[in-house]
Amino acid sequence: MPKLTEDAVSVQALGQTPTPVYAAPLPPASRRALAHIPGGDGWPILGHTLPLLADPKGFVERRAQRHGLIYWSRAFGYRNVSLLGPEANELVLLDAQRIFSSGLGWDVILGRLFPRGLMLLDFDEHRLHRRALSVAFKSGPMQSYLAELNAAIARGIAHWPRGREVKFYPLIKQLTLDLAATAFLGGELGAELEPVKAAFIAMLAASIAVIRVPLPGTRMGRGVKGRAQLLDYFDRQIPLRRERGGEDLFSHLCRATWDDGSLLSNADILNHMIFLMLAAHDTLTSSLTSLVYRLAQHPEWQEKVCAELGGLGLAASEPLPFERVDDLPVTEMAFKEAMRMAPPVPSIPRRAMCDFEFAGYRFPAGTGVNINPLYTHYMPEIWPEPDRYDPTRFALEASRTRHKFAYVPFGGGAHMCLGLNFAYMQAKCFSWHFVNKVRVSIAPDYRPEWRMWPIPFPRDGLSVTLNPV
Ligand code: HEM
Known about the structure:
It is built from 16 helices and 13 strands. By secondary structure, the chain is α+β, with helices and mostly antiparallel strands. The structure holds protoporphyrin IX containing FE. Protoporphyrin IX containing FE (HEM) binds near residues 345 and 409.
């Protein structure tokens, strides 16, 4: 497989500065415009959709084997150039020259149900919104979220069956939904939360539906209805939240302001709130499932995590204090390695807003571009024996010498995950309560099959046994 040289990073944006976004329709790059780049359209009509769906990781690896780290393909009716490896990740995520639109990249997948979520905004507008939202992720609010997380996780795990085989994925999916509801909306809502959760579940299912038109009786139809219900609920809540205060994420957003001190509009709050719930829920469900699977598969690491958490000197019934979240390097390494092997966002789409050059190729404005954390996380030249679970890869020294964009579960640059610290905090809080209550095991010869795209999850739900401590 050809390697990218240092020169690959010296990208050149051609033509004028890109228009901020959506100013004019930007036609996708034609087959002819991509003809000089390795790759092809695949089968008539379907392109590469079926092989990509059947084995997303293998598909990209086979293409890279054949064409190298830059190739194009066609799936779901769209042509996309894949730019693989850390240099490409740096180019696209850092986007120093403002070439790549995140909004136009994600719009195809999320635009209908999650319009104007933070990830769907670009450039100056995105920067303003991101700054306004950031107040909800500062240390004060994070402490309040942790209090809610501690209570809800302890409550949730207490009800999980012990001593017999159970499917882990549905359990954690339900728990992360409850956590999103309590930390994001406030713990005291009770029965009022149920229709909100149901509407949100309908939207989640629709976000990955194959039929993208909201016909009655389809997932997309139910998703669009769910969105309308959520908008209605949140809209009624905004004045109440502003009046009574509150430390949940939604209440913080209701009080968030622009640089000039004016409040965000209701429409902005609604769009951000719904997107934040999406951004947090499936990613945490996936990454915590990966973590538990790896700890079950590697009891020696489970013991190391237990020892570290035990070393905090807290009683098992106590909540994990906010001040101790950063004292858990082993737990963090175990979580990072689980996300290396199954990054919750395995590929990241963009659209080029102007012509650009990379690694000796010229790409026209409008080109759909994909970078691929999943592929990068398994490159053997960066991660020796990439199929082996080894959290020591994230020891300080090893991380220091690695390319900054070799590990990108949270993306990077202007759109880097805004909830990164929230995610680590929730993973550690979960680990604390989990190992205090149970030890997890799996059958010795059990190798569950993972579907790696659009979000990794074990196809069979992951059979584990939770043994009481
Ligand atoms: C393990 C958990 C998570 C993972 C792996 C993850 C991953 C990512 C990635 C890869 C992106 C960037 C996508 C791109 O550049 O196109 C992103 C963006 C984002 N994430 Fe996360 N995420 C996680 C949890 C969360 C949580 C818990 C929240 C909120 C509480 C959150 C909120 C966001 C937001 C708002 C953005 C958009 C940022 C922007 O466009 O400026 N994420 N996330």
